[in-house]
Batch of 2 targets.
Target 1
Amino acid sequence: MSEPVSMAEMVTLNIDGVDVSVPKGTLLIRAAEAAGVAIPRFCDHPLLDPAAACRECMVEITDAGNGRGFPKPQPSCATTVAAGMTVKTQKTSSSAADAQAEILELLLINHPLDCPICDKAGECPLQNQALADGRSESRFDGAKRQFPKPVPMSDLILLDRERCVLCTRCTRFAEQIAGDPLLQLVERGAKQQIGIYPEEPFDSYFSGNVVQICPVGALTSSDYRFSARPFDLTSTVTTCENCAAGCQIRVDARHGEVRRRLAGEEGEVNEEWSCDKGRFGFFSARGNDRVTRPLVRRGGELVPTSWPEALAAAARGLKLAEGSVGVLTGGRLTTETAYAYSRFARGVLGTDSIDCRARASSDEETQFLASRVAGRSFEDSVHYADFDAATKVVLVAFEPEDESPNVFLRLRKAVRKNGLVVETVAPYLSRGSAKLGATLVPTRPCDVVAAVSGLSLDGSTVVLVGERLAQIPGGLSAVVAAVDASGAKMAWVPRRVGEIGAIEAGCLPGLLPGGRPLTDEAARLEVSALWKSELVARVGLDAAAQLQAAADGSLKALVTAGVEAGDFPDPQAALAGFDQAFVVALESRLSDVTDHADVVLPVDLLEQTEGSFLDWEHRVRPVKQVVANPRTPMTEIRVLAALSEALGADLGFRTSQGAADALAALPAWQGTTVTLTAVDPAPAPPTGVVLSSWRELIDDSRSLDGADSLLDTARPVVARISPQTLRVEGLATSSYVRLTGPKGSVTLPLHVEPTMADGVIWAPARARDNTLTQLGVCVGRAVTLAAAPGPKKEGEE
Amino acid sequence: MTDTLTPVLTKNWGSDRSWTLDAYRAQGGYDGLRRALTMAPTEVMNEVKDAQLRGRGGAGFPTGLKWSFVPQDNPKPKYLVVNGDESEPGTCKDIPLMMASPHTLVEGVIISSYAINAHHAFIYVRGEVVHPLRRVRQAVREAYAAGLLGQNIQGSGYDLDIIVHAGAGAYICGEETALLNSLEGRRGQPRLRPPFPAVAGLYASPTVINNVESIASVPSILAYGKDWFTSMGTEKSKGFTIYSLSGHVKHPGQYEAPLGITMGSLLDLAGGIRDGHQLKFFTPGGSSTPILTGDDLDTVLDYEGLAAKGTMLGTKAMQIFDETVSVVRTTRRWVEFYKHESCGKCTPCREGTWWLVQLLAKLERGEGEEGDVDKLLSVCDDITGKSFCTLAEGAVACVTSAVKHFRSEFELGYTTPAWEHLPYEHSALFTVSSAPERSEKEVAA
């Protein structure tokens, strides 16, 4: 590949009689696009290294820029421009046009021509080109190459070898972009085919991209196969809701139901890629647990009722609470909806107890978010492009491949193209970190503060902090100190899509919209003037405190929006809170929270609504309505507005656009901000093995319900331990390990991880059937380990 | 120009245990190395450049000039890679050389590596030829033991290690960049150029890739001097080379002669066509080079002489066929070879050879239709000039040249199976007890 060159170095050449200037190093096929000429191609892809394998993009070069031409046509996908070059494409050269037609003829001789039953038909480059430039009848009357089909490459991806044109886009994607070189060419000549090593299926978090970039119908996904024709689909460009990366996606629906999701093209964010969770994880609302009518609890049972009755019941309970109300908004709301909750809590309910963090959090984190994340504009935030300019990126309590896959892809690109160095403060070198060529700073969770203090940072370094750092007392303080001292850039990357937007909307105790501290009188007055209501000056409770106060009766009511007890570090304590308080749940699906709710108000799905997210870079990412919005359930904002009316107040808006306008009416805050009071690190546990954990991309998330093929590609659930700790703990002969905490035990297969820090055991946080919250212990604390027998096999006693 | 044999590379092939270091030394072996180590590397390079040695692997690129393309200011290591993946149908010169006199090659490798400042050299030998492979490995071992390889060779301060690598049986790995991929443990498919191997070849480092015979010619240049070398051959094709003759000649084998000998003289040296038969057609440089016919006995066998005839010197492998041979059958079998050996990377080669074989088999079976010969040429035209590497060019060259010279024989395929007008048993070189049945499998599509 050519070295990156500055845009200033331009080269002028002539294509089909038109002079064009393009940056030095540009490939001819791209330069032709700049001149308005589309050269047909199959193997070429702008984000992959050139292969020049299909030979479809042949052009005639009558002058290579040195006064001499090439005697033979040249592949424009692998030829870089030169000053003074004269190029003739199929538009002006019969030699180029003939070459392209001849290659097309050869590509079709072994093609099954089964367009009528092919998923790709209608959006197939081979079909389009055969139609536009091919012969109407084949001259080939011999025997075609035949293969059994389809063959699975993984649980998600199937291969039809007869349709394949061997362009190697998929193998190059797997190797160059995803870093999972599990798809390879095997055999040779006409028998050449795409294949896998039988014991290593193409289990990549990014496998679905190969279906999208396949220029024929050779690679299909098990979910979408035979389910629709492209021309029957209605496409909507929107934003993926599965993490905070902000990827653009295209959602295709038929008869009001989403059939597939594709990566959108957003050069500054996800380029043309998406992860499998974003692509295949959209079935969760198809179960029989959808809430479609308002429910109220009568005699211990939730029973369907009318909207007026449900709203009246909710208003009655909330009025009785007299401001002793907590609001838990989860992390998956659009910015507009989060703003509606922020205003509903403070302006209508008169409480500052609002928190979007349905996860482990801390006061230190609340201050960190209020001082370092809230109130930032897009311009003064870290961006994806900063990875390309940085010399080093340091990951602290952050596993991009699991927690923000597109961040991983962009980091990997910067590593591959620009020689970016990645350093990770983690207990072991994860598969994702290994693919980034990252340097591991092997760190027990309880030692993160010391490790962060020891980092070597400077102005060209970017520090990416994960939300998990809130689990380490002093961790965020240490990062802030290190970043402030070195001038390094820092960004906080949450897992959930709505957290940045919720923080901007003020869904944190003590934090008003736009980063305004509640304790600042000017800020309070500004917001109160806009909302036309008095604001309580007392800082409210965060999520954990709300649940605890609810359990002990000091908080009377809770309003929840898309949260589950299992999201919180102590689900049992959360359930105790939901059990005691008067709970109004705004939900689209039944859950362990609605099980304890007194009123359930149904809200529509994200795919039925409009709005926007803020990704981790504070970039506004539009959310578009994909399928028609039924009259019931209503949008969350509409429900909140109705509930406000029932409470005798005015929310001020009833639509997403109304909320957006209201939020935009708030000027940027110029006043004081919350200050972060540095927190000292907690002492390491004196004995025992320390627990480390995070959520893997594909785990028991309820958003993946119904995505069965995707779930089959989840990584094997194992507990990881260093060889040294294995010996010390006497587990050397065991293949399973039992982790025990104060509240319970979990048994997992044992995996020896050579890069693992000693004295640590790592396990996935939310594996199916093995949720670590059962232990009753948080990350950084000690657990006891014991050898355990494996699961009983069938027939065994 | 002379017409007589000039044994240099083949001189010691007949001597007792010619493959051993002792036998090689007794013939003056390693004299060239001794002289080279007294010279500066650039002087050695210039000596080879001035000798006008051209690549013996087919393309005929000047060897010394190729060496000079290695950027000596590049901080990466420089590598010499010797292409011993001799697999072209008809070609049989490197394998006998490695078998009979592996030290000629080893000495050449040391001198050539010295000239380009390489400290690692690789000899990539076709995997199927186990015996020559063992001989080369043994020669390398002997050279190490004798202080001709390793650290501080012969007290010169120059270090060199040689790695002998066996291929895994793919013709494409004779293509230099596919060879590099294979050597690195990757799939044997050609690489995009640029970058050229001289700049970023093996392990992305500057690399020179030379044919076995080219490298084996270097010791004699150093031992006897460039003037001796340029005294042989023609104006632009200097020196001697090994011609390998096979097929319907009385004495097939390797004939070392100056470049520029005529086909007629070479045929005379080999005793002529077998008794009672006449030359019908021959390949001048292996099956990848367009064929010539019995009218071309005056052809001058050097790079220019064959280019003038619209073909190539290639690997100087003359496959010689008399009038009993069906050119349709021969062509079909050649193209089957290329179809089998196509690496599959690019469309024209992968799909085109698949189609050509079917068309040729149809004509051979006498099942062709009016227009099939034109279709055959048209498919050749689909392939020509569009493939990734030159493998497909070779596959097409034998077809187009055969049709050019023997079109009517192909057109006979519209009505008559090839074996009916040219019974295959007539071209057998040995007598068989009964005429072999035509194998169904052999001409199956």
Target 2
Amino acid sequence: MKTKSILAVLLLATTAAGASAETLRWARAGDSLTLDPHAQNEGPTHTLAHQIYEPLIIRDMTGAFQAALATDWAPKEGDPNVWVFNLREGVSYHDGADFTAEDVVFSINRAKSENSNMKELLNSITEVRAVDDYTVEFVTDGPNPILPSNLTNLFMMDKGWTEANGAVDVQDVEGGETTFAATNANGTGAFKLVSREPDVKTVLTQNENYWGMDDFPMQVTEVVYTPIQNAATRVAALLSGEVDFIQDVPVQDLGRVGETEGLVVKTAPQNRVIFFGMNMGADDLDNDNVEGANPLADVRVRKAMSMAINRDAIKQVVMRDQSQPAGMIAPPFVNGWTAEMDAAAMTDIDAAKGLMADAGYGDGFSIQLDCPNDRYVNDEAICQAAVGMLAQIGVTVNLDAKPKAQHFPLITNDQTDFYMLGWGVPTYDSEYIFNFLVHTRGEDRGSWNGTGYSNPELDAKIVSLASETDLEKRNATIAEIWQVVQDEQLYIPIHHQVLNWGMTDKVVTEVSPEDDPKFKFFEMN
Amino acid sequence: MLAYIIRRVAQSILVLFVVGLVAFSMFRFVGDPVDNMLGQERTQADIDRLREQLGLDQPFVVQYYKFLEQAVQGNFGLSYRQGRPVAEILMERLPATLELAFVSGLLALLGGIALGIFTAIRRRGISANVIMTLSLIGVSLPTFLIGILLIYVFSVELGWLPSFGRGDVVDLGGWTTGFLTSSGLQALILPAITLGLYQMTLIMRLVRTEMLEVLRMDYIRFARARGIRERAINFRHALKNTLVPVITITGLQLGSIIAFAIITETVFQWPGVGLLFINAVQFVDIPVMAAYLMMISVMFVGINLIVDMLYFAIDPRLRVDRGGGGH
């Protein structure tokens, strides 16, 4: 055993000497909020965590499942309520401890604890048990066919390290104590944490004992991560060669970056769809000029408003071609998406006017549109464009654009009649969309459904998805639900957002739909 | 004297209280921190639980009282965004802002005085008029535009200076300094110019006006008549009398350099308290916003207090007033 490890070290040393050290200087708009992998369920936080920690299953740069700390997984034969995961053997944490089944049990229980922000994804899990050192069983409260897709951002911490450092409890802001795990990290991932100053600079170095040294390109040996908030400065840093790779390239600078010698812009559809929601549930709206009635309650009005939106014009003028017009509120990767429904949206002002007249609003009405101005790509500009388009069918829109911290509470607190929202689907399954956006607003579901729409029959179908193991039957139900969502024009889809990554031509990578670069996949010229 | 100081200190504390009260009454209009703290999958129960934990369900006066109660014990709470003690974060960020403020203040003072004297003496010269015209740019262009312009010219086109960050810093036991490394010094140049340009043009114009005024005084004419060298008249006799108002203005402007570093820090990703504050506003990080605003107001109030006391020491008329009571 000893000679073997010495050999391994020697082998590693020679390969490391053979490959030149490649530092990747990386900038994006925001920083990770914490190193504690269960404290925040948020993009930049997960992206950094993915370099250091690993979940059982990851999504590769194209969004497809790939085995990480689990080698394979399947529902248990004879018991549809149990998922069995076989774990990878020979994996060790950065501090040398072995990764075993007890770490999985510990991590899942930690992620299910009260202060964890990941717990909603694990609601269905009632028990996690270690069968042996490398086999774990997840018991769910009913059959859960899509459990694996809830685990791709669920990182495995070392039980011993976490307990020894008093970090068993997830960061509790009101508790007044900073947990050790929020500022230190010990994962199994491809990179080890060297230093970190929040909001300033984080340095990672390649983990030479990484189990996947041969499975991934592993060409980046060091990562220097500096958040640069101001978009113009971020682009300037790439143009001047101070960073090698940036996320969030502003659309107006894409041309500038792409035309610069030695720089490349790569784009790919993002897992995020942008749409408008309408309050159709209220008897009367607060912010319109129609007394005693709610024009949005009439499906003809909703259809007319959707027809008035010229999605191609928004794509060309507002988004500079960096969007994909949408006809349904599901990103194209998601199970349940169909090309036919996504292409269904059409612009027809005359037909829209006809529908408005049929609904008794031939003279139009006025309404307020609430819009964020710092959340989505060109969010406020999209709303401004929509104002002009809706005016063509007599709908006078007063635009109220605000920062996201003020905008989103309007939706969750039922204080808006007409609003913009964007939605990403981390599980890649329509059920996630239905749970949050279509189901009647209630205790467990519908928290982002600001439309006031309530259809008990549809709700029953949505709930049934959670435990339907017959995938064919389940997909049929999904298609039925989508048909209702489309027929009722529950939302007005606008477009799928497109992601832009800017990089020097020595960096070779795909753009991941989740906007989360995993540097072990990167190749360096 | 003592009564005067006590009165001024009491007024200062009152000002601090009012600033805090106004700040807390405004926080709820910034947005809802809970929305940022919990992911999109959160349930209503999570929201209610966190809101109650953080005391956000209480009226703002109660929140303010709790903040004060903790603050007098030196505890500013945990940042909602970073989950670390606010005092620790502020102390970590303050050196960057103070160093930037110091360098741009120095730049503004030295550059402003030198150019002010030059334009006053060579009042009719072409170069003086060119400088005066250019100084209009410094007064009228917004800071972020100057910053972006400098980045474009010196980082992107010429590639001489870094466009963001502080470069390498050296940790001197709790104080990180960029003065000791070449990359740290390079990184200081563009932000310092951006931040100091407005103050520099202000001081320059002030010095020029004062100088022109003084140069018309009788004692200068007599000095000229006595045949004293022009150099000595300008720098020994005229300049000294010009500096009194300049020092007052500089003292007051120092506070605003620190407070208004926000924009410069955002443009250059300068890791100081200004950038911290901007991030806090976007995230609705109430403990950080509250502590930052209190810190800035303590600073302003402190500077004003010192200036007031200096007046008392310098201006005999204030003392005569009190002495008159003794007769």
